[in-house]
Amino acid sequence: LDEFFNKKIGLKLPEGGRVWLSKNAWWLALLGGVFSLWSVLGFWRLGHTADRFVDFANQLSQVYGGAAVSHHLGFMWYIALVAMLVQGVILLLAVSPLKAMKKAGWNWLFYSMLLSVVLGVVELFVPGYGFGSLIGLIIGSLIGGFLLFQTRAKFAK
Description:
Blueprint: H1 2-8, H2 15-63, H3 75-99, H4 103-123, H5 130-150
Helix pairs in contact: 2-3, 3-4, 4-5
């Protein structure tokens, strides 16, 4: 990927931008990790609140002779929840090495990006996502990979 993002793409970040990104990556990862874990809690609460409304709608439908109108939280909901949790932990694990400008911190950011790509590919098989999800995955992965590989050389082994 380094060959693609640093040599094949003619676009380069200015040196000052690379230095700024690499020096500030630790607090960006910290914010990303905290917000990710916070969103896991919100996602959990929202999902279970929606589940209660589904139960109510199903009961109401059955009272009037209808069938169940919706199902409960599915397998993919739990996969997304676990992926968000893992990604938040990965970002928090990256903070200390990024602050010390170590390659291990950059590696954690790379693993986080890979997890996003894998989850995006899995979402292609979820009804309601499909093509729009694929476009978002491609754009996000290209931007994230570009920024990540532009700063790779700034981190010591």
